[in-house]
Amino acid sequence: MPSVASQIFPGEGEMARLIRGMDWAATPLGPVERWPQSLRTAVSICLGSRHPIVVWWGPERWMFYNDGYRPMLGESKHPQFLGASGRECWAEIWDVVGPMMDRVIATGEATWSEDLQLLMNRSGYLEESYFTFSYSPIRDEDGRPVGIFNACTETTARVLATRRMRTLRELTIEARSTSEAARSCTEILARNAQDIPFASIYLRDESNARLVLAAQAGLEAGTPACPESTPLDDAATSGWPLARVAATARTEHVRELASRFAGLPIAPWGVAPSEAIVLPIAQPGSAERAGVLVLGINPRRAFDDEYQGFFGLVASHVATALSNARAYQLERERAEKLAEIDRLKTTFFSNVSHEFRTPLTLILGPIEDAVRNADKTLGGDSLETVRRNAVRLLELVNTLLDFSRAEAGKLDARFAPVELGTVTSGIASSFRSVVEAAGLAFVVDCPPVSEPIYVDRTQWEKIVLNLISNAFKFTFHGEIRVELREHVDRIELAVRDTGTGIAAEHLPKIFERFHRIDGARGRSFEGSGIGLALVRDLVALHGGSVRATSAVDHGSAFVVTLPRGRAHLPADRIVISAPAAAHDAASYLVEATRRVEPLALAVTPSAVDSARVLVVDDNADMRAYLVRLLAPRWRVTAVEDGRAALDHALSDPPDLVLSDVMMPRMTGVELLQALRADPKTNTIPIVLVSARAGEEAIVDGLETGADDYLVKPFSARELVSRVTTHLELARTRRAATKAALTLARTRAALLDDLERKNKELDSFNYAVSHDLRAPLRSIDGFSRALVEDFRTMLPPEARDFLGRIRSSAQRMAELIEDLLRLSRVTRADLNRDTIDVSAIAAGVLGELQRANPERKVEIVVEPDVRAHADRQLLRITLENLLGNAWKYTAKTPVARIEFGARDGAIYVRDNGAGFDMRLAHRLFGAFQRLHSAADFPGSGIGLATAYRIIDRHGGQIWAEAEVGVGATFRFTLPASDDKTGT
Questions:
Q1: Which of 215, 312, 603, 925 has its CA at a distance of 20 to 30 angstroms from the CA of residue 852?
Q2: pLDDT of amino acid 506
Q3: Cβ–Cβ contacts within 10 Å for residue 488, how many?
Q4: Domain housing 671
C-alpha cells in the first residue's frame, strides 16, 4: 500500500522526491501521517505550483519549499534547510522578515511587499537582492493562524536594470566644455552610488604629457585613491593603472583595493568597495584615448557580464558627452576667433576711415574753395594745409601696406651689416627740432657699436621713427631719450619718455593691432592703431623682440632687442652691403609738427554782437580750417579736446558747439552728455563731426542727443548752412521760451487771483447763508404761531397763505443749509480713517425710511464695504447720493435702491426716473437740475457737494442712467489695507 507521503506529495520534481524520501519521524514535526491536515494541504499546494513558494510552519518557521524557490537559496542553504528553522536559514534578513511573519500570525492578515531590498548570503557574501512577495496566514482545523504561505518572485534583475538604465539616460547631457561635461557626468554617477560607489575622470592635458583629474565623486581629490594628475609615461603599479589603460586602450580590473588605498567610501553599503574597474575613454576620430574613467564596484553584487556591460555603456556615454563638449568648445572657439577677426576688421575700418576722412576734408575743402574763386588759385596757409594732409595720407597708405605685408610675411627685407649707433643717431636726430620746439629735452645717446649689426635699413628706420613719434605724442613735459646699448649676445635700443604713461591693464595689449586706449591724454587722438603692432612685426622680422614698461604719469620705455650676428636670419636675405637709405621721416615730422601747435584757446575777431561758436577738434589743421570757415560770420573759439571745451562752456556758455567725436581726454559724445547734464548748457545746440559714415552712424549720433551730425569729408557751404540753421533755431527757441515763461507767469497770476476770488466767494456764501437763517427762523416761527394760535379766527384763504409762507421758508432753509454744507466741504480738514461704509449707508437709508414710513422701498446693502476716508464727509456724500435715489424713485411703483462695491468702485443704484446721458456733463454742477422742480423738488446742490468731497479725497465720481429705467452713481476712494470696495 502506498505511503501517505507518496499519496499527498506526488510528482517527479526534486523537492517532491526529497520530501517523500525524508525521515520526518526523526524531526520535531514527526511522521507525515501525524501532520495536521492544514500543513499537508499547504505543502501539497506548494509542491504542485511552478511559482516560487515557501511554507513556514509553527513557531520555529520550519521551511517547506518547491522547485521554483530552490534557486533562491543558493548552494549553501539547500537541501539542509528543508524542514529546518527558517530563522537559522535566513539569519541575515530575519530582522526584516521575522517581524513581518509575527504580525501575520498575530493578526491573521496577509501582507504584500514589492521590490523589497534584502541583503542575502547565498553565495558566500551579503548580496544585494530584491523580492516581491506576500505572506498569507495558514489556519489550522480550529481556525488559528499557525503557518505562513509565502509566494515570492525575485525582481533583482529588473530593479538593477531600471536603475542602471536611468543612469545611462541621464548621462545624455549637453555641456559647453570638457570640464563641465566631466563634472556633470560625475554628478550623475554619484546619484547611483549603489552601482558606482565612487568615480573619477582623468583627461589628457594640453601638452599631452599628463592625465589630469577633471572631476570625481565619492573620493577626495589629491589623495592616493584620487591623485590630481599622473604622467602618461608612469609605470608605477601601486596605484591606479591610469597611464597603462590610456596607452593600451584596454580595460583593467583592479582588486584588493584595501591594500592599495585608504579612505575609500563606505556609503551606501556600510563597507568599502574591494574592486574597481579602469576604462579608457574613447576620442572619436583619434587613435589616442581622450582619458581614463575609474569606477568603483558595488561590494554587494558580483561583477558579472551584465555589470561589466553596464560599465562599458557608462564609459561610452561619458566619451560621447566629452566629445560633444569638445566639439562645442572647438566650435565656440572658432566662432570667438571669427568674432575677434570681425571685431578687428570693424576696428580697423573705423580707425582707417577716421584717419582718411580728416585729411581728405582738409584737402577737398581748400580745393573746393579755390575752384569757386575767380582766379582758381590755392596758396598760403590753405596750400600748406593741403600739402601736410596729402603727406599724412601717403604715410597712412604706406603704413597700411607695410603692416599688411608684415602680417602676410611678404616684406622684402634685405639684411646688411651696419654701424647701428651712427645709423640710429642720424634717424633720431631728424626729430630734434620738433621735440625741442615743444619744450621737451631730446637726448640721443647712441654710441658706435663694436661690430656691425645686420638690419634692413628701411625697416629699422620705421622702427625708430614709430617709437619716437609715439613717445612725442604722449609726452608734454620733461624729456624723450633714445639710447643704444651693447650686450654680450644682443643690442638693445630703448626709447624712454616722461609722458602720461600706460595703465597696467593696457600694457599687455599695447602691441596688439588696432588697440587704442580710450581716454588716454595725448597730443592727438589720431592714429590707425597699428604703429606699435608694425614695430613688433618688423622687430620679429629681424629675429628680435620688443617690450614695454610704464607707470601712469611717470612715462614709458620701449626696448627693442636684436641678436648679434646673422645666424638667426634667413641666409637668402643677407647682403654684404646696401646703399645708405635716405631718411623717410617727412610724414612723421609733418604729423609731429601739427601736434606742437599751442593748446591754448584761439579766439578769432568778429562782430561783437554776433553769435559765439565753440569749435572742438584735436587736429590742429582741422581747427584752423573750421575757424577760417566760421570766423567771417560769427565769433569763434577753438579748443583741442572735450575737457577744455567743457571747462570753457561752463564758464562762458557759447551759442553753439561744433565738436569732433574722437578726441583724447574726453570724446565728443562725453562732452555732449556733460553739457546736457548741466542746466547752464543743456539747451545749447551741439553739432557733432565724425568720420563714421552711413545711415546707422548718423542715427547713432543723433540718438546721443546731438542736434545734428556731420560726416567727414563735408563741404564748406554745408557746414556754414547747418551752423546757420541751428543758431537761428536756437534763437527762435530762446524767444519762444521767453514768451512761454511770460505766459506761465501771467497764468500763475490769474490762477492766484481766481483762487483768491473763489475763497472770497466761499466766504461770502457762508456769511450770507448764515445770516439768512435768523430771519427765516422768525418767519417760520411767527407763521407757525399764527396758524396754531389764531387758526379759528383766520379765514380759509389766510390759512392757505400762511401755509405757503411756511412751506417757502422751509425750502429756503433747506437751500441755505445745502449752501452752508457746500461751503463747509470746501473748508473742512480731512481726517482720514478706515471706516465701514456699509454701516453708514444702512444708517442713512434707515433714517430715510423712518422719515417716510408710507414709502415701500426694497433696500439692498452689501455688507463689509470699507474705505479710507473722512467719516463725516463720506456720510454727507452718502446722504446726498442715497437721498437722491430715494427722491427719484418716489414715482416708481416698486422702488429698489442698492448699495455695494464692484470693480474697484462703490456704487448707489436705483430704478427711478433716470436722466438723459446727453445732459450728464451738467450733473455735478452747482444749481444744475435735469428735472423740473415741480416733478422732483430740490436745491441742485447735493450732487455738487458729493463731487467736491470725492474730489478732495483724490477720488472720482461718475454716473450712468437711462430715462425711466434708473441711475447708477459710482465713486472711487484711495484704497487701504482693509477689505475695500475702492
A1: 925
A2: 80
A3: 5
A4: 597-714
Task: Decide: residue 525, CB within 10 A, 0-12 exposed, 13-18 middle, 19+ buried.
Answer: buried
Sheet holding 686-690, edge to edge: 602-604, 635-639, 612-616, 656-660, 686-690, 708-711
Q: Are residues 660 and 807 in the same domain?
A: no
If pLDDT is split at 50, 70 and 90, which confidence band does 436 have?
confident
On whether both 804 and 843 belong to a single domain, the answer is no
Q: What is the DSSP letter of 958?
A: E
Summarised one tens digit per residue, pLDDT across range 447-473 is 999 899 999 888 898 899 889 988 888
Cell triple for residue 868?
479710507
Same domain, 678 and 691: yes
Give 88's DSSP letter. H
The answer to whether residue 978 is domain-embedded is: no
Clarify whether residues 23 and 145 are in a common domain: yes
d(CA 394, CA 355): 11
Do 49 and 139 share a structural domain? yes
60 touches 148 (CB < 8 A): no
> Which segments of 790-836 does DSSP mark as H helices, in order?
796-827
Query: Does residue 96 register a pLDDT over 70?
Result: yes
Tell me: do 741 and 836 sit in the same domain: no
Counted domains in the chain: 6
Q: Scanning the structure block, which residue is given the C-alpha cell 551730425?
A: 709
- Non-local (6+) Cβ contacts of 703 within 8 A are none
Buried b (16+ CB within 10 A) or exposed e, 360-379: bbbbbbbeebbeeeeeeeee
Give the CATH number for residue 285.
3.30.450.40
Candidates 275, 279, 144; CA nearest to 202 is: 279
- 626, 617 in Cβ contact below 8 A? yes
Close Cβ partners of 51 (under 8 Å, ≥ 6 residues apart): 68, 151, 153
In a domain, 823, yes or no: yes
- What DSSP letter does each residue of 601-615 carry, written as one string? -EEEP--TTS-EEEE
Residue 852 domain flag? yes
465, three cell numbers: 621713427
Q: What is the pLDDT at residue 591?
A: 57
Beta bridge partners of 128: 119
The dihedral through the CA atoms of 388, 394, 397, 400 has a sign that is: negative
Last residue of a domain, one of 101, 119, 154: 154
Q: Cell numbers of 156, please? A: 533583482
Q: Categorise residue 237: left if φ over 0, alpha if ψ from -120 to 50, beta otherwise.
A: alpha
Pairing of strands 635-639, 612-616: parallel
d(CA 660, CA 641): 9
- Cβ burial of 434 (10 Å; 0-12, 13-18, 19+) is buried
Residue 759, C-beta contacts closer than 8 angstroms, at least 6 positions apart: none
In this structure, which long-range contacts are made by residues 338-344, counting pairs with CB atoms below 8 Å and at least 24 apart in sequence? 344/513, 344/514
Integer Cα distance of 372 and 366 in angstroms: 10
CATH (domain of 746): 1.10.287.130
CATH code, domain carrying 479: 3.30.565.10
Top-confidence range, 10-24, 119-133, 397-411, 941-955: 119-133
Residue type, 308: Q
- Whether 389 maps to a domain, the answer reads no
* CATH at 628: 3.40.50.2300
Could you tell me whether strands 126-139 and 111-121 are parallel, antiparallel, or unpaired per DSSP bridges?
antiparallel
Q: Of 560, 585, 610, which residue is a domain's last? A: 585
One domain for residues 823 and 845: no
Joined grid coordinates for residue 395? 604715410
Same domain for 902 and 935: yes
Q: Residue 275 is placed in which grid cell?
A: 574592486
For residue 590, the surrounding DSSP H or E stretch is: helix 586-595
Exposure string of 882-914, with b = 16+ CB inside 10 Å and e = fewer, is bbbbbbbbeeeeebbbbbbbeeebbbbbbbbbb
Instruction: Kindly tell me the number of DSSP H helices and DSSP E strands found in the chain.
Output: 25, 31
